[in-house]
Write a structure and sequence with these properties.
The chain has 7 helices and no strands. The protein is mostly helical. The longest helix has 26 residues. It is globular and about 45 Å long.
Length: 144
């Protein structure tokens, strides 16, 4: 029976069947890059990401990790640009409040299974960031 158990349990992780079930329906592209700035459609989530990354930049600077610091600065800049795009679309009337809320709802429907799949794969940090993004978007929708 011990041999049987070994076949169904990944050392240090959930059973492969659990991982496969959690990952099914989530596009591989999302799993490969779940923190891509283009996946952020919420102004509030982008603001939170800028704050989170700013803290990481400070830590990288304290650790004198110039390469990480540059990567994080580029991510912060990308998030700020994404924010500016959302604001510009709203100001031009291209993005109405209803459209914005629909985008948030669609992103929530996309991100919840993504976060669960990441968790099932043992990617706790990425799952945590995606869950935080979902929480922010849900609050934004409820507050509208």
């Amino acid at each position: 029976q011990e041999e049987e158990r070994k076949e169904h349990v990944t050392p240090g992780g959930p059973a492969p069947a659990v991982v496969k079930a959690a990952v099914s329906g989530v596009p591989p592209k999302l799993l490969a890059d779940p923190l891509n700035i283009s996946l952020y459609v919420s102004n509030d989530a982008l603001e939170a990401e800028v704050e989170r990354v700013s803290g990481l930049i400070a830590r990288a600077a304290a650790a004198k990790d110039k390469e990480l610091q540059q990567d994080l600065m580029q991510r912060k800049q990308s998030a700020e640009i994404q924010q500016q795009i959302i604001v510009a679309r709203v100001q031009k009337g291209v993005l109405t409040l209803d459209m914005y809320l629909d985008q948030l709802r669609a992103a929530i429907r996309r991100d919840v299974p993504l976060a669960k799949a990441l968790l099932a794969q043992g990617k706790k940090r990425e799952a945590g960031v995606v869950f935080a993004r979902v929480k922010i978007m849900k609050a934004e929708v409820q507050g509208a």
